[in-house]
């Protein structure tokens, strides 16, 4: 009963995520192209946002993992 329905709904959620993965990767790479350039300029400013820099670093790591590259 409930174990099978849980596994079924989890499997469906996983399949949905896997299907969306190429689009998510492309969107993240595009975001990084835009904000990565901004991040380079921010790192030279005295009040650079560490949150934005951290987000760019997390994006780079996620992209590397998605492509099977070392993080």
Task: Please give a structural write-up.
The chain is mainly alpha-helical and 71 residues long. 82% of the residues lie in helices and 0% in strands. α1 crosses α2. The N and C termini lie far apart (41 Å). The model has no long low-confidence stretch (mean pLDDT 84).
Mean pLDDT: 84
**What is the terminal-to-terminal distance?**
41 Å
Oligomer: single chain
Low-confidence stretches: none
By DSSP, the count of extended strands is 0
Percent helix, as a range, is over 70%
Gyration radius from CA atoms, angstroms? 17 Å
Provide the structure class. Answer: mainly alpha
Q: Describe the main β-sheet briefly.
A: none
Strand proportion: under 5%
How do the SSEs run, as a string of H and E? HH
In a nutshell, what does this entry contain?
With 71 residues, the chain is an all-alpha fold.
What's the helix and strand layout?
Blueprint: H1 2-42, H2 50-66
Helix pairs in contact: 1-2
Features:
71 residues; mainly alpha; 2 helices; 82% helix; elongated
């Amino acid at each position: 009963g409930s174990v099978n329905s849980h596994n079924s709904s989890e499997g469906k959620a996983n399949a949905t995520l896997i299907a969306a993965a190429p689009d998510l990767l492309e969107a993240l790479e595009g975001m990084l192209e835009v904000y990565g350039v901004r991040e380079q300029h921010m790192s030279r400013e005295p009040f650079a946002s560490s949150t934005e820099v951290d987000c760019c670093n997390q994006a780079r790591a996620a992209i590397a993992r998605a492509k099977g590259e070392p993080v």
